[in-house]
Amino acid sequence: MYGKMHSACLYGIEGVMIGVEIDLANGLPLTNIIGLPDSAIREAVERVRAAVKNCGYRYPQQRVTINLAPADLRKEGSAFDLAIALGILTTSAQLIMPAAAKMLLIGELALDGSLRPVTGVLPMVEAARRAGFQAVLVPRGNAAEAALISGMNVYAAEHLQELKQKGEATGGVDASEDGQHLASLSNTASQQPILPFPVIVGSGTAVQDKPPVLAEDLEHLKYIPRYSDVEVNPAADGLMKEDYSDVLGQNHVKRALTIAAAGMHNIVLMGPPGTGKTMLIKRLPGILPSLSDSESLEVTKIFSAAGKLKDAHSGLLRSRPFRSPHHTISGAGLIGGGGIPKPGEVSLAHRGILFLDELPEFSRNVLEVLRQPLEDGLVTISRARAAFTFPAQFLLACSMNPCSCGYLGNGGTHQRCTCSPARIAQYRAKISGPLLDRIDMQVDVPRPKEWIEQGPSMSSAEMRAEVSRAQLIQAERYKDLPISWNSELSGAALRRYAYLNKESSQLLHGILESLGLSMRAHDRIIKLARTIADLAGASAISSAHLAEAVQYRNLDRQVFTEE
Predict the structure, then answer these.
(1) What is the residue range of 31's domain?
(2) Of 323, 265, 258, 319, which is closest to residue 292 (Cα–Cα)?
(3) Does residue 472 lie within any of the structural domains?
(4) Buried-most residue among 318, 459, 469, 527 (CB within 10 A)?
């Protein structure tokens, strides 16, 4: 006998539809899973066997072959347990499942038959919707996540026994009674609702014009999403909310951060300890605009695939991600990796901010893997059977000390730098020239000269208003292009939308010659000047905008001065 169910697996951050085919044949009792399964899938045999028996069904004493199609795609995880169990029960005529041809089955089985949630449900359900599926059955713990995809009927269960027919005996339906049971179905056809898909029965064939027995039973499993925001105490929330008005002085740094947020430009802050570098960057998400609908789905899919979507009851992620990995992170942790690669920190920061605190403390080999995502906005990881591509368009924000001891150029009387020139050069050499070239803004954060009676400080609301105005200008300018920010300009689009007049072009060429900058730095200065012009509401880039953009290449100027 032959039967088929439908499940899915993750391939990178995308869901892939998998057909779970069941064949019951005469022979010695043996169960084989084929189709390039990993260890977790091969172990599903014992989980399914125990769950089926503990729920009152019988496990077939036949030769059971389970094929996961397509067979040339390597599969991993425990999400196939539910599809395998229901495939065996329907093929052995112990259960009749409605919507088998258009229902996605995802879930891990415990030995007692209860359903455990799995990771990556969101991209799997999205793949099912693209494939024309109309319904999905998941563990209750994954129901809120599955319901984030519109147009899908979500059914949620906590135990395999919830799928039993009304009035069914604990021992299940015997195969010999199957014909009598189907006859009773035809007698009650006029009283049962008919779903727009066939029903799988014991023989594995579709029964046309027969109402599904479990149609009414599945209705009580239907999940109705109720999204609600987390209740907070407004007074306490106001006290705990981080705002740029808390940072004394450093208005020039706030101006630089406003420019970085307005165009999603990479930025590094360099200064002695205690000058507020980390404080300034940690407040950066507060001035960025919220994610659009398409960006929200894209970011939420990545977090779901990585198993980091903690609460799906509040809907899709709307705040831009802020990732701050420790400096001991490996290259695989930063970029992604594994047998079937999973997204790393650069992909988790997609459409948001990747904060590297104390940049020179990271391994140089780890930092060098940032070159491709900073240039291309994506990460490609190749394996023997396939190449995986993860999105990685993020704002790189870094902080660093000017030297090993941290007090170079401090200007204070109590703390002076004790580093030799060779030690300073060795410290800064941890950041290679090609990587530094990809960082648009390099800003000094000096120690404030006056701690008391500082002038009015820019607040996050004021900075957010400026960023929002610039973002609206860019959205209108690039509405016909697949980009959203000035930092994404390149090639012909850069020459068209960031055009320099003759005076500005001559100024930039003179600066490039004097500082010895690369052509990559040339393009990044122009993109930065375009953002500064947008903040000023100017349609064209002027020499003043270009001069301000060049001022943010502090490390380039220092290297040239030292040479």
Answers:
(1) 2-219
(2) 319
(3) no
(4) 527
Query: pLDDT tens digits, residue range 392-413?
Result: 999 999 999 988 888 887 665 5
Residues 130 and 182 in one domain: yes
pLDDT of residue 12 exceeding 90:
no
User: Strands 353-356, 322-323: parallel, antiparallel or unpaired by DSSP?
Assistant: parallel
Instruction: List the one residue out of 251, 261, 250 whose CA is nearest residue 397.
Output: 261
Residues 175 and 259 in one domain: no
Same structural domain, 249 and 203 = no
pLDDT of 68 higher than 90: yes
Stated pTM of the model: 0.84
Q: Does 84 or 199 have the greater pLDDT score? A: 84
- Per DSSP bridges, beta strands 342-343 and 267-270 are unpaired
Are the C-beta atoms of 309 and 145 separated by less than 8 Å? yes
Alpha-carbon span 315 to 291, nearest angstrom: 13
Q: Which residues pair with 21 in a beta bridge?
A: 4, 67
Query: Which DSSP category does 351 fall into?
Result: T
pLDDT score for 193: 33
Query: Does residue 103 contact residue 136 with C-beta atoms inside 8 Å?
Result: yes
Are the beta carbons of 267 and 256 closer than 8 angstroms?
Answer: yes
Distances in Å between the Cα of 55 and the Cα atoms of 86, 113, 160, 524 are 12, 6, 7, 63
**Count of domains in the chain?**
3
pLDDT of residue 313: 81
**3-class DSSP state for residue 493?**
helix
Asked which of 25-39, 89-103, 106-120, 329-343 is least confident by mean pLDDT, the reply is 89-103
CA distance 537 to 148: 38
**Domain-located, residue 202:** yes
Which helix (H) or strand (E) segment holds residue 85: the answer is: helix 81-91
Q: Which residue, among 296, 288, 287, 292, has the nearest Cα to 314 in the 3D structure?
A: 296
Of 186, 219, 252, the residue that ends a domain is 219
pLDDT at 429 over 70: yes
Residues 50 and 157 in one domain: yes
Q: Is residue 228 part of a domain?
A: no
The strand pair at 153-157 and 387-391 is best described as unpaired
In terms of C-beta distances under 8 Å and separation of at least 24 residues, what long-range contacts does 182-188 make, across chains too? Answer: 182/207, 182/210, 185/210, 185/211, 185/213, 186/210
Q: Which residues contact 181 (CB under 8 A, 6 or more apart)?
A: 96, 173
CATH number, domain with residue 308:
3.40.50.300
The answer to whether the beta carbons of residues 7 and 66 sit under 8 Å apart is no
- Could you tell me if 41 and 81 lie in one domain? yes
Q: Which of 456, 451, 526 is nearest to 496 (CA)?
A: 526
Tell me the residue ranges of DSSP E strands in 100-189.
103-105, 108-109, 115-116, 135-139, 153-157
Task: Output the pLDDT for position 367.
Answer: 94
